[in-house]
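Minutes, project check-in

Agenda point 3 was the complex the collaborators sent over. CS summarized: two entities, 621 residues total, and the question is how they sit relative to each other. Sequences were read into the notes so everyone works from the same version.
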Amino acid sequence: MDSVAHRLSAVGASAALELRGVTRLFGALAALTDVTITVRPGERRAVLGSNGAGKTTLFNCITGDFPPSSGTIRFFGEDITQFPPYERIRRGLRRTYQISALFPGLTVQDNVYLACRGVSRGRFSFLRPGQNDALMHATETLVQAVHLAGVKDRRVAELAHGQQRQLEIALALAGAPRFILFDEPAAGLSPTERRELIEILTSLPAHIGYIIIEHDMDVALRVVESVTMMHNGRIFKEGLPREIESDPEVQELYLGGGHE
Amino acid sequence: MSLLQSTQFRPDPSTSTTRRALLRAWPEFQNPAAWLVALILVIMPLIANGFFLIEIFATTLILGVIALSLMFLAGYGGMVSLMQLTIAGFAGYMVAVFGVSGNANISLGWPWWLATPMALALATLFGTLGGALAVRTEGIYTIMITLAIGAAFYYFTNQNWAIFNGHTGINTVATPHFWGVDWRTDIAFYYVTLGVAAICYFAVQYVSRAPFGLALQGVRDNPRRMAALGFNPNAHRIAAYAFAAFIAALGGVLQVWNYRQISPGSVSVGACIDVLIIAVVGGITRPIGPFIGALIFVLLRTFALDVLIKLGLDGNRFRLLIGLGFLAIVFWSSDGVIGLWERWRRRNASSTQRSGGGRHG
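CS then shared the predicted structure for the full assembly.
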């Protein structure tokens, strides 16, 4: 990297998330091609696109679940391209999974406690938390914030689908998140549960930005200020929610395409 | 269904939070059967003679401790390690090498209070290094790597004369003697093994609910998700191997004190697999399982011979019995004897509930 480009990227240090030329190949298949995105701190953005557009692959590259084949990823100015996932999470990045990735054998409380512990010290502690443990309080607060206080001692395997989705969000809110990636948080939720989800998303502190992948336009466009359209692994269009909604090309490609 | 509906499940207000937390943390404290077993174990020397005390109960406790280390790895970490007995045997060898034994040309003659910590430390290191190799793989490959380590160690002890004294092994290993007590006399040694086994049992139980143990169970269930929560899954796995190695090493030190000798036969591949059988037969989801499995194993090993001969069969077929029992248990219960026991209790409970009506669980 030449020094001019280096200084330019240092100027961009104010971006929460900055992807440059990110490409991800699976064998000969390019799941992502030359994706460049800049997201401001506190910005809330939707990523739209049909199945196979590369949305989840984009998330996996950002969190490091699998690294990009080429390109760089910066998180609050720091180059995290080569970091393992846990190092990215410890820096304030969070994500939820499209298919709930929870610990079914553990209780709701233990799940949330693990999430709180993962981004703090004492991950290897051999001492059980006491009654006044700060992380236990954080856990309680978080469990209440996602309306799961009544089932906190139940094993996750016994929870209803909607409750598991709520828990998935609680895990992403643990600690001090700076930026969250929500992968279809509304999938399989009832209308009531969707309203609660929108309430949770819109009531997040203003400094926490997020990217949300969502097929449900009612949810997606109500909780974001900008939209990125993806198609075949490339950025297709970026803009404000109403611009995207009324864009004829987008309508043809996605909204009018008989999708849901 | 609304998400808010679920908040209507309220905990029983009659139990205070502290009490509930205590019971959740130490479930055996509310179980009268556990108290009874503990009492019987403590007064055992009044009931049992020297043979039962050592050959049955001390041996069970020692094998139970070694199998407990496998239970910790397999049950909480999802890692089946076949080298736990090898680690125990390594610790036993180190006690013999650093301490006092009949082979004066090999043993360094350190006092027991120096040789034992040394043996524990080296065996823990050995287990941690083996674990660091094994965590690079998963499932069947973990089993293969740990089995390879076990087999390699067995053949190494057979062929190395400078430290391990080849196939004859090291004999007449000295046992601790202090405060005017010979700790290898039957009753004293029984209490030593009981104490160590109890400490290991409660340590595993405690750690399983501590952040480290919870995280380990998280790594077992979904390592990718754990990484997405800020945990380093492999670091946790290696730490689990270290902890399990220490427990196995304690069992190994007790074992060498028990037999007062150690030879390659003690660390054979067959013995490594016995530990797996003990853990699986007892049940690998809870720390009590390995001890139940060890008791069954020791009872069969000790008495199957007589029973078989009475039936007119070859007494050496006791392994056949163990094998058949193993097959039966794996076939009918994925959670060993505890699993069978719990299913039986649940069925009883549900039938009394049906007949009795409003019994509270």
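Noted in discussion: Chain B has one domain: 54-356.
Follow-up: revisit at the next meeting once the mutant set is ready.
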